[in-house]
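Section 3.1: Structural characterization of target chains.
Under the original work plan, the team committed to producing a structural model for every single-chain target entering the pipeline before any wet-lab resources were allocated. The record below documents one such target. The sequence was received from the expression subgroup and is listed exactly as submitted; it comprises 458 residues.
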Amino acid sequence: MDLLAVACLSLAGCLVSYMLRWVLEWRSQRCYMLHYECYKGRDEMKLNTGKCAEVVQRNKNLGLEEYRFLLRTMVSSGIGEETYGPRNVLEGREENPTLPDALSEMDDIIFSTTDNLFRRTGVSPSEIDILVLNVSLFAPAPSLASRVINRYKMRDDIKCYNLSGLGCSASVISIDLVQRLFKTCKNSLALVVSTETMGPHWYCGKNRSMMLSNCLFRAGGSSVLLTNDPRRKNKAIMRLKTVVRAHVGSDDDAYSCCIQMEDKEGYQGFLLTKYLKNAAAKALTKNLQVLLPKVLPMKELLRYAIVRSLKKKTKGESSGGGIGLNLKTGLQHFCIHPGGRAIIEGAGKSLGLNEYDIEPSRNALHRFGNTSSGGLWYVLGYMEAKKRLRKGDKLLMISMGAGFESNNCVWDIMKDLDDENVWTDSIQRYPEAAKVPNPFKEKFDWINDETLSSVRIA
C-alpha cells in the first residue's frame, strides 16, 4: 500500500472519529422541556392600589419626602394592581416576620406549581432523577429542596441541589446545571423550581434605594420539567439549543449595585443603586458576544463585520446605539426578564427590538410584578397565551441578576403552543402592542405637596 493510500485511510479514520465524537457530544447535550407551570395566587393576595397605600402608610419611618418618593415610584413602576403579595405583609406583620411565615409562603408557591406540573405531564415524583431548587434570600435547614423530597417521598438516589444568593437569573443557571448533569445522567428527568421569598425581606426603613424593591418585587415562581430521554422527545414542547453565562462581579460597582444589606437604622432590605443599569448593560454585552455567533446565521454576522469595519475606517470608531446586529434573522421571540420598566426598555432598545417584541415582558411585569427567578416563565406564558409560539421558532431568554450577571439561553420550539396557563383569565385584557392602563397613575398621580400632607396624616 503506497503512502497516499495510507494517508487517505488515516484522514478518513480521523474524520470518522471526529464525527462520532461530535454525535456523542450532541447526544449528551440533549435537553428537552416537557412542561412548565407558573404560580398564581389567590384573589385575596392581590396588592391593589388600596392595599399598597395601606402598606405604605403603616411605615411610620417615612417622612413627607419619602412618602412622596414612594408614591411617584409606584406610579412609574409599570406594576398593575393584580400582583400578589406575601401573607404577612397583607396582614400587617411585615416588621415582625416569622420562620413559619417564610415556610408557608414557599410551600404555597413550590407545591402548587409542582402539583400542577406532575398532574399535567403524568410524571410521578418518584420518576424524578434530578432536583434543582433556587431561592436566593431564604436558606433554612433542612433545605427547601429536602422539603420537596420529603413532601413527595422521592427516591433516595435523587441528585439534589439547593441554590441560593443567585438573584433573578437563577432559573437559567439551574437549567445550565441540569444540562451539564445530563451529560453523565442518561435518560433522566429533572425538576427545576425557581422562586423567591418576599415576606421576610419586606423593607420597613426609609432609604430610597432600598424602598424600590417593595415597589417591584412580588410573590411568584415556577416549576419546569426537563429530560434528556429520547423516548420522551415527542412529548417535549421545546429543546434547549445553548446556554451562555457572563459574570462581571469582579467590578466593585457591578457587585454592589444589587445587594442585600441593612440600612443605618438596622432595617434589612435589598439595595438597588443607580449603577444597576450600567452593570446590566455590561453583563448583557459580554454574554451576547458569545451567544449570538452561535444562533445567528453567518450571513448576518458577515454583514455586521463588514459594516462595523467600514464605520471604523470612516469615523474612527463604531457609532450609533445598540448592538448593530439584526437578531430577528435567527431569533423570533425574546423573553426579557421583567425586572423593571427601565430594564425592559433598555434591553429592548440596545437589542433593536420593537414594542411587539418587549410587550410580553412589559405586560408580565404589569400583571405579576418582578417575581425574581420565576419571571421569565410568566413572559413565556404570555407568549403562549397569545398563541405566538409556533413549531420551528427560536426563543431567546434574557435573564439578569445580582452578582452582577447575565445568563441567557436559546430554545427551539418543537410544537405549536397554546395550552391554558396562569394568563388564561386575564390575557384578553392585554391587547397586542398596546399600553395597558396604569391604575397607580390614575389614583395617585394627582397628589401634590399640599394634598400629600393631608393624605399622609389620614
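Residues 74 and 215 are 6 Å apart (CA to CA).
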